[in-house]
Amino acid sequence: MGFAANGTVVAIVAILAVLVALVWYATTRLVTVAPNQAVIRAGKGAKGQVQIFTKGIVLFLPIIHQKFVMSLEQRQVELAVEGVDKNFITTSVTASLNFKFDDSVEGMSKAVQRFLTHSKEDLNASVTKSAEGVLRGIVSAMSVEDANNNRKEFQDQSLESAVTQFAEQGIQIDAFNISSVSTPSRTVIGPDNMPTTIDYLEEVGKPGLERAKREARVATSKAFQESEAARIEQEGATAALMRDLAIKKSEFKAEQDRAEAIADAAKGIAKAEQDVTVAALERKALTEQALVEQERLDIEVHKPADAQAYKMRTDAEAKRDADVFSATARANSKAIEAEGSKKASIADAEARAAAKTVEAEASKNAEVFQAQGEASAIELKARAEADAVRVRGEAEGASIAAIGEATAKAEDAKAVALTGHTQASLAFLAISALPEIVKASSDAVSGIDNYTVISSDGASDAVKQANRIVAEGLAMIKGSTEIDIAGMLSGLLGTTAAPVSASAPAGASDEFVAERN
């Protein structure tokens, strides 16, 4: 039992040792690539070549693989180049270059081949020399004036050339900045055998400098003129303000004098008002003194006189009141007598008025009774007449209804009687009506008072007119009943007669004029 427990412990310890060994091995063999690094694994790999990793975790096996690390951080080198321009003028240029390794696979491969074992100083020196060569090439193709004046163009050309050249080395150029362009000073012997120091750019810039100085002097003069103009304008404004101030002071002085004059006048007015007040008080004192004197006279003179007058007036009023009382008593006696007579007259008048009222009321009642009786009689008469009219109307209506009924029955009997008659019987009935037709025609002619004939027939034309009327009547009967009375008569008489038409007889073209008054 103890042996088994010992074996289990040993196994667990062995497993833990293996795990620890694996963890240690992993930590020592696995490399995490930093964002600013490129890890190169050399040795046997999938392709048997150098492998470059810019991210992730890389496994390195002992003996098989070899590890290299290259920084991808940006670096900067300072450049100082002295060369000659296209005009053989010595030119000095200072610049700075920012670069880093190209992190693309192709660029990193080129950089690994060239700079894998280079230190930082070696790399900077190599890049500096290459960049200085680029600058000398650009300077030799330009004049120092163009390089100095067209600084951006100079910088762009330098950057473009550096990018092209360093791309073949696996280096990426981020920036190429030109700091300064200058020409070194040199000493020359003048005509007077005196040494003189000359700077080309300084000499070239002297005209511009003189022009700038001249412009500065002009600007200074202009500024001085403007300053003087401003000063003069300011002084004018100050003088105007002083003038306005003086005017204001004079206006204030005039107002002050006017106020003093008004004050003096006010003092005089106040003194006059004071004198008026004193005079009024003196007048009031005199008035009070006069009142006192008047009261003294009232007490000493007027009051006794008034008392005497009052006594005399009282005696006169007493005598007058006695006379008035006597006269009033007499008047009252007469008024009482008149009042009695008046009351008697009023009573008599009221009695007569009451009698007349009773009489008028009786007459009125009699007239009312008479009017009511007449109205009742008229109402009874109207009712009787209405009943009579109603009875007559009903009788006439019954009579008219009976006559209509009888007429209808007669017409029905005539229709029944005529039904089945022969043409001869109908002709007989029509002939029976001829006398009435002829009479009606003659009445129409006889009603004419004056009759003028314009015709060759003379008076016989009247007979023709009557015959024409009869013929037109027979034609009308024929047209409305289809009974030819003329034809029937011709058949009965056994004669041949011309058919009667509604057309006008011979001579109808003659003029016919009838006048009726």
UniProtKB/TrEMBL annotation:
Signal peptide: none annotated. InterPro entries: Band_7, Band_7/SPFH_dom_sf, Flotillin_fam. Keywords: Membrane, Transmembrane, Transmembrane helix. It comes from the Bacteria. The keyword Disulfide bond does not apply. This is Flotillin. Residues 32-186 form the Band domain. The chain crosses the membrane at residues 7-26. The keyword Methyltransferase does not apply. Belongs to the band 7/mec-2 family. Flotillin subfamily.
